[in-house]
Amino acid sequence: MDFQNIKELINIINSSDLAYFELKSNDSYIKMDKSLTRSLNRNVEEEETTKKESNIHTKEEPIQEKNDFLENKLSNIQEEVVEEDTVIITSPMVGTFYSSPSPDSESFAKEGDYVKKGKVICIIEAMKLMNEIESNYNGKIVKCFAKDGDMVEFGQKLFEIKED
């Protein structure tokens, strides 16, 4: 089948109501499927008809929509001012926060305590395993964000430490 015959066949199929056409011959195979383009054209026609029928004049403002989206995202972010020499220790996993090895024991670390690098500062229980969380810094604990028995998420703030 030569190019001109294929071109004629495409024009005939396009002008017809056929949504799918397949032709097999000795040396060629042609398959045409208009179902996707027809549904797209139908949706565009319906949208245009709806706009014509309603006397509402719409002005598309994609830039404004993007700005609104970004403003919403930014408003969800809470900004915190952290002092110059302070660092935040965050949870490395999801689990239950414990400040001491047992309910009767004293806390590993509390606000005002001085901690050294490598000292256990809390336990996070995850899947029945007790995971000791160690300080990566030397310094004084300025704030403890979690309370005993709290569920903590990955990346959630646990301690704020003022480094030496």
From TrEMBL:
Source domain of life: Bacteria
What's an example GO BP annotation here?
fatty acid biosynthetic process
Annotated organism of origin: Clostridium botulinum (strain Eklund 17B / Type B)
Q: Per its UniProt record, what Pfam families does this chain match?
A: Biotin_lipoyl
The protein's matches in InterPro entries, at most eight in alphabetical order, are given as: AcCoA_biotinCC, Biotin_Carboxyl_Carrier/Decarb, Biotin_lipoyl, Single_hybrid_motif
Q: Which GO terms describe its cellular component?
A: acetyl-CoA carboxylase complex
Q: What is this protein called?
A: Biotin carboxyl carrier protein of acetyl-CoA carboxylase
Task: Name the keywords, alphabetized.
Answer: Biotin, Fatty acid biosynthesis, Fatty acid metabolism, Lipid biosynthesis, Lipid metabolism
Pathway, per UniProt? Lipid metabolism; fatty acid biosynthesis
Gene for this chain: accB
Alphabetized Gene3D superfamilies for the sequence:
2.40.50.100
Protein function: This protein is a component of the acetyl coenzyme A carboxylase complex; first, biotin carboxylase catalyzes the carboxylation of the carrier protein and then the transcarboxylase transfers the carboxyl group to form malonyl-CoA.
